[in-house]
Specification:
alpha+beta; 4-stranded antiparallel β-sheet; 16 helices; about 25% strand; globular
Length: about 525
């Protein structure tokens, strides 16, 4: 695979370098490897996706829930994001150190003022249906993502784009309203995947059609999703003939399937289950994640529209206790930003340690001395620690006169309620990003496409996020995002709790898979199995 570095203007180089250095430091400190350690019914792939000469090797990966969508622009559920990430391609990519590297764009050049970005596309790339990939598809994709009617979840990452031009089939020119230090990392998100201009959301929901290393083969709702190797992939041809994502609702059952040989790979999030998998020919690799566990508060609903109520909740929680109870202490207490180069200081908050007396005093000041009830949604099935987190939070907050009324639901219903902002509070696991703008700009700016979900914005945050986008100097950017962190914590916008690990379990004979801190499964393309 060609991973030649692209020529960029200063802000592009600076961003990539800082990302690599920050992540290397984080990885060296925490990552270890244990040596023993909805949709329609089955459909056929496009004719060109059929694989007749793929090398041997069929991998079964265990996952806990079915993908709620296979349309990349709207994928938010972790399983959906992971699966579509192997089917579709993006203009840039992130390597295993989260450094920005070429994807469908093999190089790029920024103008001296940072307001024009010219991308040179790879030649000879084809979609799985056999159609050529060109600049017309890029223009179509970027323009559609930016349309409000599309409801793309990462639309805010393209907010700086004023115009997309396709002067020839191999060139795309982005005219920006202002320099954007985050755009190269942003373009690597699978939520900004490149689609064929001839495809529709309805068609892709039934039979995805991308440029990635694997092509859609078959779907059995609530049972499995099977992909086949794409022999025309622009990079090195995948070593696996097929990848089947088999839905096994319980992680303990996935481990049993690994031990029996019915499953060869799984990414676990329950550390106790991961420990039980070690040995007997199963290797478990522990990888620190950018994702963060959080109690989201909807500040547009009473009584959470009162900052003193939100601060009372934040002060009444011992985050380390939540981590210890739900995840056996496997992880670290976190502030809002988990991006390695901009990581927040979790002690820089109004109550760095639990203070029940202060929580009660804040409730009294808010006129709620007799207590308050907060209806809270909790997912079940997507990640293993959610219910334990919610129950521990419930017990802690009760001591301060705050009642969490828990509504536990399956992941599909949770995602629907979450996207509609139909909750007072939500116990959630949100994905992190290597750049804090793409991580939070879509949430906490007044024009962010997920601001409805975030439940909070302010003129100060709008100004700070705008400054963070346009600032090239690394030190200055760090200061800006430190101020954003302070604003989020001082206003108890959400209650950030902890970041944890992913545990990749593989059976003997599986090799070449590289776990990613952003939970991507992109390195299935380099994986083989005997």
């Amino acid at each position: 695979m060609d991973l030649r570095r692209s020529r960029t203007a200063g802000w592009g180089r600076v961003l990539a370098a800082v990302t690599v250095v920050g992540l290397l430091a984080a990885a060296c400190g925490g990552s270890t490897t244990s040596p023993a350690a909805s949709g329609p019914g089955p459909t056929s792939p496009p004719a060109s996706a059929a694989v007749t000469d793929a090398p041997p090797g069929n991998l079964v990966a265990g996952i806990t829930s079915d993908a709620d969508t296979l349309f990349p622009w709207k994928a938010t559920q972790f399983q959906s994001v992971a699966i579509v990430g192997t089917i579709y391609g993006t203009l840039t990519e992130l390597d295993d150190k989260l450094d920005v590297v070429p994807g469908l764009a093999e190089s790029w050049q920024a103008s001296s003022d940072g307001k024009t970005l010219t991308l040179t596309l790879r030649a000879g790339v084809k979609f799985h249906d056999g159609k050529d990939f060109s600049s017309a598809d890029v223009k179509f994709s970027l323009d559609k993502i930016r349309e409000e009617a599309t409801a793309a979840v990462a639309a805010s990452s393209l907010a700086s784009i004023e115009e997309v031009q396709a002067p020839d089939p191999g060139t795309v020119v982005l005219t920006l309203k202002n320099p954007d230090a985050a755009i190269l990392a942003g373009l690597a998100s699978i939520n900004l995947a490149m689609l064929s201009k001839d495809d529709t959301e309805e068609a892709l929901g039934k039979a995805p059609n991308g440029t990635g290393p694997f092509a859609f083969k078959e779907r059995k709702p609530n049972e499995s999703i099977t992909l086949a190797a794409n022999p025309g992939y622009w990079g090195d041809e995948p070593k696996l003939a097929t990848v089947e994502f088999r839905i096994i609702p319980d992680e303990t059952s996935i481990v049993a399937a690994l031990q029996s040989g019915n499953v060869q790979l799984a990414v676990l999030d329950d550390p106790l289950v991961a420990r039980s998998a070690e040995g007997g020919g199963i290797t478990v690799t522990k990888t620190p994640q950018l994702a963060y566990h959080v109690l989201q508060l909807n500040a547009r609903r009473a009584p959470l529209d009162n900052v003193k109520v939100r601060l009372a909740i934040a002060c009444a929680i011992d985050r380390q206790q939540v981590l210890d109870t739900a995840a056996l202490g496997e992880g670290s207490v976190t502030g809002p930003i988990t991006s390695p180069a901009y990581r927040s200081d979790p002690t820089a908050r109004p109550c760095p340690t639990r203070d029940v007396a202060k929580a009660k005093a804040l409730l009294a000041e808010a006129g709620l001395a007799d207590g308050v009830t907060i209806k809270t949604i909790v997912s079940q099935g997507e990640y293993a620690t959610s219910v334990n987190e919610a129950q521990n939070l419930q017990a802690q907050l009760k001591e301060a006169g705050i009642t969490l009324e828990l509504e536990v639901m399956e992941i599909g219903g949770f995602v629907d309620r979450w996207l509609a902002a139909d909750f007072d509070a939500a116990v959630a696991l949100n994905g992190g990003r290597p750049d804090p703008d793409t991580m939070y700009g879509r949430y906490f700016t007044s024009t962010g496409n997920l601001n409805k979900v975030a439940g909070y914005s302010s003129p100060e945050l709008d100004e700070l996020f705008a400054a963070g986008k346009t600032t090239a100097d690394v030190t200055a950017r760090k200061d800006i995002y430190a101020r954003i962190t302070q604003h989020l914590e001082d206003n108890a916008v959400w209650v950030w709790m902890f970041s944890s690990y992913a545990y990749t379990a593989t059976t003997a004979g599986v090799s070449g898979f590289i776990p990613m801190p952003n939970a991507s499964l992109q390195y299935l393309r380099t994986t083989s199995v005997n």
